[in-house]
Amino acid sequence: MPECENCGSFVTEQYVRVFAPSEMTTVRVCPECPDMIREKGGVREAKSQRNN
Questions:
Q1: 6-23 b/e with 16+ CB inside 10 Å = b?
Q2: Which of 4, 16, 39, 45 has the most CB atoms at less than 10 Å from its CB?
């Protein structure tokens, strides 16, 4: 089962298909990672907290 590389949370295969680069089998960050965001092929710390 795919897991988030940042926090280890479970993510669905559909979520991976949508949000991961085609060469990856998992995501770098997920909705459970409020302190991190994807940016320009990488991951960085969020400047502010997300509103969930």
A1: eeeeebeeebbeebbeee
A2: 4
The residue segments making up the domain with residue 23 are 13-45
Count of Cβ atoms closer than 10 Å to residue 33 Cβ = 19
Report how many domains make up the chain: 1
Residue 50, in any domain of the structure: no
Q: Which two tokens stand for residue 11?
A: 């993510």
Q: What is the pLDDT of residues 1-52, one digit of tens each?
A: 899 988 899 999 999 999 888 888 998 888 888 777 767 777 777 766 656 5
Contact between 30 and 45 (Cβ < 8 Å): no
Half-sphere exposure of 20 (CA within 13 A, CB side): 20
